[in-house]
Design a protein that fits this description.
Elements (H helix, E strand, L loop, with lengths): L11 E5 L7 H12 L5 E5 L7 H11 L7 E6 L10 E6 L2 E6 L5 H6 L2 E6 L16 H14 L9 E3 L13 E3 L2 E9 L5 E6 L8 E5 L2 E4 L12 E5 L4 E6 L4 H5 L6 E6 L3
Helix pairs in contact: 1-4
Amino acid sequence: MFEKQQNPQSLLTLLTDFGDRDVYVGVMKGAIAQINPKLKVVDLTHQIPPQNIAAARFCLMDAYLYFPVGTVHVAVVDPGVGRKRRAIAVEFAHGFLIGPDNGLFSGVLSHSPAVAAVELTNPNYWRTPNPSSTFHGRDIFAPTGAHLACGVPLGQLGTQINPESLVKLEIAKCTQSGNMITGCIQYIDHFGNLVSNIPGSYLQSKSWGVLVGDKIIPGRETYGDREIGDAIALVGSHGWVELAINTGNARSHLQMNLGDTIQVVIESD
């Protein structure tokens, strides 16, 4: 059942792969301002690698808990724009998600499941009833997000859909066998740090390292715990095990990429 938002004006965030060279982000903000110029808009990032849904999934999952309950998150990494993928709005315990139904919300929803969802079929809340076939961020997602943040009930935005039908972006699951935990690289940040899907909570009060080839990279507390140029494994601020190079780039140094397997070895007591 849909319910009207309690807060008549919420915060709105934007996450895209549009970069900052072109006007795309600016005109999305213009579309929002046409609805409510006083609405607070926060840029999460616009530097998602082009069409990289997995990176968008991770960044949104990493960010949403730092915002007040009721925040509207508009995320547009949309290689399927203009085709038959759905445009959606999703309510979950911490707020709302608006964007393409291509799996980029699956990270957030794996931690905080959807309460309700709609397909955005009501053009009354679009910028125009004849949206561009290549820029739904400007014509559908941004204005719909603004209306939602200003108190329009989710159910008015379109047709109710089953949250279980939302597209999930599948990544390899984290598994443990004996003293070995196996996961994968789920994100690579600006510094080239390799972020796995292995939760740091698995390693509390344990000595551990990450197996790369025939070597074990030791687990430490912080980057400076190794010499400059050395590889290090640690639990990052996001709570996941990551591989880094002190003042270097782990992706290029270790020749690892998104989806690659990573194995943590826990030392015996």
